[in-house]
């Protein structure tokens, strides 16, 4: 996704999804095989261990950066994209890696802090792999959990905090990250979800049709009477901890 990477020749090659979190290294390959190993202080060693355990036949990896270090914006388009980035992202553009595209007179912006992007590329390449793509974790998660029609709110709960992602079948409209410290109670995540639902529905005049729960720390959400509290159908993702890795492995290439 980020324009930092222009390895066009790699897009035809099979790759696997590599998701690095604070606690785990997760891999999903193109055949649907899933691998998880604990993430130690030496992340390069942990990635090597995961790759060996996964018995991969390709060195080509699509990777993600943490949501707390990335930005997704879907805004009314007007003027130069770089100017719109400066207006909507609170970090100097020279410190970002970013990509944009237009959709129905709106501008979609995906950006990540360059220092963090470089760090994750260094970890991956240090493990002997080739980075074919890098994107915010929310885009990969949404790719795997997007609805066939309508709009869905994805709540992805990781050890560092919770991501709230609103997606249609073809586009991520909204993302937000809240740290674990900012949502201390089990009901706080639900209350925050309702706030984002109301914001989206008021701004875009669209209806959120359902909620999908994902992530390695789902246990911290109070599931009791959750559908009644949110007022929409709620389902738990099939592989809660692996959705980012799976979404990365599903990145389209030129042949698709």
Q: Any chance you could write out the topology, listing elements then pairs?
A:
Elements: E1 16-20, E2 24-28, E3 34-38, H1 43-54, E4 60-65, E5 70-76, H2 81-88, E6 96-103, E7 106-113, H3 114-126, E8 130-136, H4 137-145, E9 152-158, E10 161-167, E11 172-179, H5 188-204, E12 210-214, H6 226-230, E13 234-236, H7 243-249
Parallel strand pairs: 1-4, 4-8, 9-12, 12-13
Antiparallel strand pairs: 1-2, 2-3, 5-7, 6-7, 9-10, 10-11
Helix pairs in contact: 4-7
Structure, explained:
It contains seven helices and 13 strands. With 256 residues, the protein is an alpha/beta fold. The protein has three domains: 8-67 and 114-136 and 245-249, ATPase, nucleotide binding domain (Nucleotidyltransferase, domain 5, 2-Layer Sandwich); 69-112, no CATH class; 139-241, 2-Layer Sandwich (Nucleotidyltransferase, domain 5), CATH 3.30.420. Strands 3-2-1-4-8 form a five-stranded mixed sheet. A five-stranded mixed sheet has the order 11-10-9-12-13, with helices on both faces. It has a three-stranded antiparallel sheet with strand order 5-7-6. The longest helix is centred in the last third of the chain and has 17 residues, at 188-204. The protein is globular.
